[in-house]
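Listing S7. Sequence submitted for prediction.
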Amino acid sequence: MTDIVVVDLPDAVVRQIGARTGRIPRRAHADDLGTAIDDTTLVVVGAPDGGVTLAQAVHDVAPEVAVVLVAGDVAEGNEVRATLTVTPGIGRHATCVVLQEPDTLDRIADEVERAQLRLQHRRTLERVRDDISAFEGAAPETLSVYLGQLFEHAPVGILLADLDGVVRAANPCSGEVLGWKPRHAIGTSLTDMFSGEAADVASGLLRESVGSGGPNEATITRTGPDGTTQHLEVTVAPVDPDHWDLGVFVLLRDESERIRALEAAQRARQAAEADAERYAELAWTLQESLLPPDLPAIEGVHLGTRYHPAGDGSEIGGDFYDV
């Protein structure tokens, strides 16, 4: 559970943070932060009087800790944000909110959620760090950081689940794909994320992956977050076939736009083919209507004709009719 530590904030703001996040913030003095925080902590700091310096000190003690700097007004907030952009090391985990803005408490609550997700991701990745050491020439810590960044910023949804299909970690993109906040997915069974036939497909993918030890994929059709039909390509594979206790990872790719584009192209092609057939039929009908049904009978004269339609006969104009 993420712990909230507050420094140099008014009591009213601390109470509001507690009410909004459902956590009881702990007050701490700037000089005591070294012993008051660990990797599970979110630090909320009053921005004035060296707030960025304090954020840097927090980063030095626990690099993964998230820090929220609370500015009193917009001008102060802009100044703090400008300072953060040029302060080495803390830009990824430090953010600034303005107390006067209406969504400040929501943003602080969101930071609590993100800090909790980072903790869960980190603990999951630590379980596979020993296996990562098998990669020659790279330190496990380095690869763990790379994997963590990949998990956090991947353009596809990624879920980590146990062998029962219960989700233990979810990256931000999975929330966009599923229409849930990532924290809502955690603790939820894969089959509960879908309904009807889609749930059966997800359950089957999990069984096949566990049984075969390899990846299995299928396209699930469901109602998407926007209420339209969503075509979701789901891949389930073991994290490590030699260590089943690590569970499985689930890749979620929303293929709806691609499939809709293919369907639209198919409809356009069929419409074009139908139009071409109608146009050709019209051309043939018009050509036949212009041809004389019979040649006139002229005494002492034998008439012969040669008709040569333009092209393949499916176009109007350019025909030759010679007598």
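Caption to Listing S7: primary sequence and predicted structure tokens for the chain studied. The chain has three domains: 3-118, 128-254, 260-322. The chain is about 45% helix and 20% strand.
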